[in-house]
Design brief:
A hairpin with a 2-residue loop joins strand 2 and strand 3. The protein has a single domain, classed as Aminopeptidase. It is of the alpha+beta class. It has a seven-stranded mixed β-sheet, with helices on both faces. The protein is 27% helix and 24% strand.
Length: 204
């Protein structure tokens, strides 16, 4: 039986208060996160192959401001368990994700200004290998709410997968989180553009 980790066991901080070594430990060297470097929604399809993994990593380092507690902004949160970095979550103004703004799925049936900087988005979770399926994503999702609200967001969105009991979902598909994760954090479903994807939102 996998031992679950409760939210009060974790310390979650803005990524600029974490070190770059901590973030690298979470992303690892073998799985998809290590090649993506949380740039999937930052880089268009046609540009992807021309941006090396090293450059993606450098972009992430700049976006997070890791190691600079005085940085004016950062792009996510880092979770620690007993001082060990164990999880990452990307959360920024929605307009920071150009590929998201051009995607079809999140906007089906909705009419609004996609470039509104006051609407923030949670786009990605990475749990360090060895700590997965233990509840870290739930704690990170809850932490995004205060993080965005305290930085002036008027709303926070997410675009999670809809999981079904007994239906296999690969880890890679769940980088956006599951619907249950965001429902637990107080988000409300405002759209279901496909059978497997929901739009979840909190208006502050």
């Amino acid at each position: 039986m996998t031992l679950q980790i409760s939210a009060d066991q974790l310390v979650i901080v803005p990524a600029n208060q974490a070190s770059w070594d901590d973030l690298k430990a979470i992303f690892g060297t073998a799985d998809y996160p290590s090649t993506c470097q949380c740039q999937h929604y930052k880089i268009f399809d046609y540009q992807w192959r021309s941006v090396s993994v090293d450059e993606r990593a450098e972009r992430l380092r700049e976006q997070t401001g890791c190691g600079d507690p005085g940085a004016p902004s950062t792009s996510g949160l880092v979770a620690y368990l007993d001082g060990e970095p164990v999880g990452w979550c990307a959360v920024e103004p929605r307009s920071s994700y150009p590929r998201l703004l051009r995607a079809r799925v999140p906007w089906t049936g909705r009419q609004e200004d996609k470039t509104d900087d006051s609407v923030w988005a949670v786009t990605c979770f990475v749990t360090r290998k060895g700590f997965r399926r233990r509840g870290i994503t739930y704690a990170l999702a809850r932490a995004t709410v205060d993080f965005a609200r305290e930085r002036g967001a008027r709303a926070l969105e997410a675009y999670p997968m809809i999981t079904q009991p007994g239906v296999e979902v690969t880890w890679g598909e769940l980088h956006v989180g599951s619907r249950d994760v965001f429902a637990d954090a107080g988000f409300t479903e405002v759209g279901r553009p496909t059978l497997r994807r929901a739009v979840m939102r909190i208006d502050f």
